Amino acid sequence: MAAVRRPAAAAFVGGAPCLTRLSPTAAGSFACRTRPAAAPRKAAAVTCTPTPTMVIEPMALVELATNPAWLVKVGDAVGTLPFPPAVVKYGHPGLMAFMILGMGLPGGVIGWLGRTNEDKKAGVKQKQLHENIMLAFWLLAFAGATGGVLSTVMQGKDILTSPHAKTAGVVLALLTANAVVAYSGFTIGGGATPEGRKQGRTLHAYLGAGTGIALLVHAGLGVANLANFS
């Protein structure tokens, strides 16, 4: 009959079971040699990236559509001056009507006449007159825009929601751009060569025509605004 092998009993060292192999010591006894514990695994780093979100508050849009507080204060301060109501309401339209009919349109026509005049000497004089008129018009346009803004605020209207005010910005930008072209010696758009200056003058002429159209649109919107102002 075959012998049955029994599992070896666990060795005990110091009253505690030794689950690792025993190694002999110098004194002939056995010591329990333990294996170093494995270093704990580090958890994988998790990086959280916040997702930016944009929240638009309805009241913020309302504030953007209203006049700035500092502008209201300026309007209130100017309103304390003894201006007749007719001046507050019709002063800006009257000035702009004079500027458009008495300076802007005639100045533009004189500029085109100087450009197309076959008499070069007379054409030079027309161009000089055009330059003087339009320089004064450009300066008065900014002054008129300032008066228009104050007039609108003093009457309790919002300037940022007005198409008339927006077209005023377009007109002022076009006037300034055309002035830069002219005072660069017409080198913008073609260079400093004679042919380049000719191209610069062409750019100046057509940019001026576009400014005139924008000015008429601006004036039409201004007339429509008068019906909304009490």
From TrEMBL:
Gene3D superfamilies: 1.20.120.1770. GO terms for cellular component: membrane. PROSITE patterns: PROKAR_LIPOPROTEIN. Keywords: Membrane, Transmembrane, Transmembrane helix. InterPro entries: DUF4079 (IPR025067). It holds the Pfam family DUF4079. The chain crosses the membrane at residues 95-114, 135-156, 168-193, 205-227. This is Cytochrome b561 domain-containing protein. It comes from Porphyra umbilicalis (Purple laver). The lineage of its organism: Eukaryota, Rhodophyta, Bangiophyceae, Bangiales, Bangiaceae.
